[in-house]
């Protein structure tokens, strides 16, 4: 078992006719992901990588019975693509696109309430269940199957942590990137709940960063509801106030959302916090 | 991106919000002329991106145009919390009877727009929030429904606004919410929203204004994007923004180039972790993002090298989809274009890392040292800085 995706997940790729979409669709197919088709307006009827392309999410879902879509469309069209997938009642929507306006994401969030869909991202690397399926852009070779659940706001930092885990022979159930935008579809708590309920996951790694209060809320949740051990890492200890550190959401505002505040919160509820990524496997032992 | 007070108030005016009819002066003489044109008492206000202007002496009341010239003379060139004043706004004076606070902002935790209002306007709102948070009324807006009339009543009533002003207040709040929406703003703030007396009548007027915009929404607002004032930004940050790289200047000596925001922050933290006791740390945050091809690496290298504080360069790439051998070739090509004698520590990990490191070794550049892990690279960078200082 794993969370969110496994070998049976049927994946559509929105923007599969584009350069990024096509490249990563190929990478996903190579990994063994069950990619069943693509969505590109006005390209319906074409074939890419021997998979059918559809004009709309609705027709794509009807024809392929897909339960997941991964979005690789440009920022100005991405919110529309998410809304379309919600409308088509696709269960899991993974949005890789970076740079979607916050106002658009507030509309998307409001529309997600009471819908049939879960959104992961935007501005995220997607997710990966080692040996079964990957949806998004995580490199498959760094992960291996095992008992550790990984949830993270950052892409390359996740790779760093997963790589360090795999080198120490600590495989993973599922690695989930929730993304670095201020408003996203799935937060730490959502994923922690799933790991807590997943019988294969024994331990959890949480990788956070400066900005917002998601990490603090996660610490409260861990304290109250989790029986499995969690090790955390928080990036951005040296970030100056008022500067956006790459991710739109990585921003210390009015003195809140600092790394120090988050680390203190984790430690106050007994969550071990790694000083650097390579320390994560040691703290998990 | 932030707008200046004069830009924010001009924008508010476009949405029907009453604002003073002042103008911007770049010289004392211009301030004199504007004050003369306005007639009567004027206010000369420094236009800088920082709070606490009043306390620093950046806002002065002028009784005559000569006063306005003198105040402008004193304020222009003034340093307010590290910001040099290049321009002043000359506004007509107002007969203030009361001051309110009104703002629309993004509530990140609630994931929806938030309206904040208070009868305690004119003060630093963060101070009000700290000392008397109950004085600030907060009302969330459903982004799918927009601002509804009953919510405006809730706010006007909640802050005990005199009823004869409700009609004006409704128009102003509707305008402010529309302005926030139509500008992709993350903050539209009026402080104070003053009750002023004009010709024996009480009127609401936005005497000061502040706007912050979502950079990701700027493509929809070319007119607003064109108003960006970069005079206070470090040259490297401007260059990076133009090249679509994410760069923040810090005060250490290790010039960092990393792929991915999270990893770039972790690299910055780790060099500080090892270097702190020796006064060594990161000179910058720089995310080259995915790809990291030769052109991008060259631009990033140029930006790092333009910072005279940089003594050592640390390149940290975790190749996921990106292949390390291609990154290594990219770095070599960039170095051919932007040669440097500074010591470089290059850490390559992930896809084809051994091949990448071999390519760097074979190039046998005297100033380049390869590293396999992030810790090793950060420690090496700190030691190298200590060696050259």
Protein described:
- The complex is a heterodimer of chains A (285) and B (389).
- Chain A is of the alpha/beta class and 285 residues long.
- Chain A has two domains: 111 residues, NAD(P)-binding Rossmann-like Domain (Rossmann fold); 146 residues, 3-Layer(aba) Sandwich (Rossmann fold), CATH 3.40.50.
- Helix content of chain A is 33%, strand content 23%.
- Chain A has nine helices and 14 strands.
- In chain A, helix 7 runs parallel beside helix 8.
- The longest helix of chain A has 13 residues.
- Chain B folds into three domains: 157 residues, 2-Layer Sandwich (D-amino Acid Aminotransferase, Chain A, domain 1), CATH 3.30.470; 73 residues, Dna Ligase, domain 1 (2-Layer Sandwich); 154 residues, 3-Layer(aba) Sandwich (Rossmann fold).
- Chain B has 13 helices and 19 strands.
- The two termini of chain B are 37 Å apart.
- Chain B is 37% helix and 27% strand.
- In chain B, helix 2 runs antiparallel to helix 3.
- The mean pLDDT of chain B is 92.
- In chain B, the strands form five sheets. In chain B, strands 1, 8, 9, 10, 11, 12 and 13 form a seven-stranded antiparallel β-sheet that branches. In chain B, strands 2-7-3-4 form a four-stranded antiparallel β-sheet, covered by helices on one side.
- Chain B is elongated.
- Chain B is an alpha+beta fold.
Task: Summarize this structure as a short list of keywords or feature phrases.
heterodimer; A: 285 residues; alpha/beta; Rossmann fold; 2 domains; globular; B: 389 residues; alpha+beta; D-amino Acid Aminotransferase, Chain A, domain 1; Dna Ligase, domain 1; four-stranded antiparallel sheet; 37% helix
Largest sheet of chain B: 7 strands, antiparallel
Distance from first to last alpha carbon of chain B: 37 Å
CATH superfamily label of the largest domain in chain B = ATP-grasp fold, B domain
How many domains of chain A? The number is 2
Question: How many strands, what sense, and barrel or not for the largest sheet of chain A?
Answer: 7 strands, mixed
Mean pLDDT of chain B: 92
Number of strands of chain B: 19
What's the total count of β strands of chain A?
Answer: 14
Query: Structural class, from helix and strand content of chain A?
Result: alpha/beta
Architecture (CATH level 2) name of the largest domain in chain B: 2-Layer Sandwich
* Structural class by helix and strand composition of chain B: alpha+beta
Question: What are the segments of chain B in which pLDDT stays under 50 over at least 5 consecutive residues?
Answer: none
């Amino acid at each position: 078992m794993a969370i969110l995706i496994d070998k049976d997940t049927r994946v559509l790729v929105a923007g599969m006719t584009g350069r990024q979409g096509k490249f990563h669709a190929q990478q996903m197919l190579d990994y063994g992901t069950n990619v069943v088709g693509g969505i590109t307006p006005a390209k319906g009827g074409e074939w890419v990588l021997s998979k059918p392309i559809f004009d709309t999410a609705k027709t794509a879902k009807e024809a392929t019975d897909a339960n997941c879509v991964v979005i690789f469309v440009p920022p100005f069209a991405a919110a529309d693509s998410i809304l379309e997938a919600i409308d088509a009642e696709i269960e899991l929507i993974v949005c890789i696109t970076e740079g979607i306006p916050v106002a658009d994401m507030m509309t998307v969030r409001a529309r997600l309430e009471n819908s049939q869909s879960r959104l992961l991202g935007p501005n995220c690397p997607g997710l990966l269940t080692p040996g079964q399926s990957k949806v998004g852009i995580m490199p498959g070779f760094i992960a291996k199957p095992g008992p550790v659940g990984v949830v993270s706001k950052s892409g390359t930092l996740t790779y760093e942590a997963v790589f360090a885990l795999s080198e120490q022979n600590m495989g993973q159930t599922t690695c989930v990137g929730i993304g670095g935008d201020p408003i996203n579809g799935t937060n730490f708590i959502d994923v922690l709940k799933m790991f807590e309920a997943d019988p294969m996951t024994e331990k959890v790694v949480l990788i956070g960063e400066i900005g917002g209060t998601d990490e603090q809320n996660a610490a409260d949740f861990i304290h109250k509801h989790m029986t499995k051990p969690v090790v955390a890492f928080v990036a951005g200890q040296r970030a100056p106030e008022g500067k956006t550190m790459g991710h739109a959401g990585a921003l210390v505002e009015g003195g809140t959302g600092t790394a120090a505040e988050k680390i203190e919160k984790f430690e106050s509820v007994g969550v071990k916090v790694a000083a650097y990524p390579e320390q994560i496997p040691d703290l998990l032992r | 991106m932030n707008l200046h007070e004069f830009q924010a108030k001009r924008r508010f005016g476009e949405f029907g919000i009453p604002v003073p009819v002042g103008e911007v002066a770049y010289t004392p003489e211009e301030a004199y002329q504007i004050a003369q044109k306005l007639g009567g008492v004027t206010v000369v206000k420094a236009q800088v991106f920082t709070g606490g202007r009043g306390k620093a002496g950046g806002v002065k009341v002028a009784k005559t145009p000569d006063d306005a010239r003198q105040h402008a003379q004193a304020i222009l060139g003034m340093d307010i919390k590290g910001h040099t004043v290049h321009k002043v706004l000359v506004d007509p004076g107002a007969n203030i009877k009361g001051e309110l606070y009104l703002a629309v902002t993004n509530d990140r935790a609630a994931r929806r727009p938030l309206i904040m209002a208070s009868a305690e306007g004119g003060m630093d709102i963060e101070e009000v929030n700290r000392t008397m948070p109950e004085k600030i009324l907060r009302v969330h807006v459903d982004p799918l429904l927009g601002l509804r009339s009953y919510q405006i009543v809730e706010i006007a009533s909640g802050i005990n606004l005199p009823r004869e002003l409700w009609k004006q207040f409704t128009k102003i709040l509707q305008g402010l919410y529309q302005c926030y929406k139509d500008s992709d703003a993350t903050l539209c703030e009026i402080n104070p929203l003053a009750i002023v007396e004009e010709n024996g009548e009480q009127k609401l007027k936005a005497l000061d204004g502040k706007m912050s915009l979502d950079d990701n929404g700027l493509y929809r607002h070319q007119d607003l994007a064109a108003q960006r004032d970069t005079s206070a930004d470090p040259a490297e940050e401007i260059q990076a923004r133009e090249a679509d790289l994410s760069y923040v200047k810090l005060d250490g000596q290790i010039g960092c180039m990393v792929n991915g925001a999270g990893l770039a922050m972790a690299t910055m933290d780790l060099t500080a972790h090892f270097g702190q006791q020796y006064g060594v740390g990161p000179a910058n945050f720089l995310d080259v993002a995915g790809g990291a091809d030769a052109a991008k690496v060259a631009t990033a290298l140029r930006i790092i090298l333009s910072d005279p504080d940089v003594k050592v360069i640390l390149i940290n790439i975790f190749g996921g989809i990106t292949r390390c051998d291609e990154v290594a070739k990219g770095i070599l090509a960039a170095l051919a274009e932007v040669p440097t004698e500074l010591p470089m520590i290059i850490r390559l990990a992930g896809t084809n890392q051994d091949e990448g490191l071999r390519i760097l070794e074979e190039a046998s550049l005297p100033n380049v040292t390869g590293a396999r892990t992030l810790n090793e690279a950060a420690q090496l960078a700190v030691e190298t800085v200590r060696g050259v200082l």
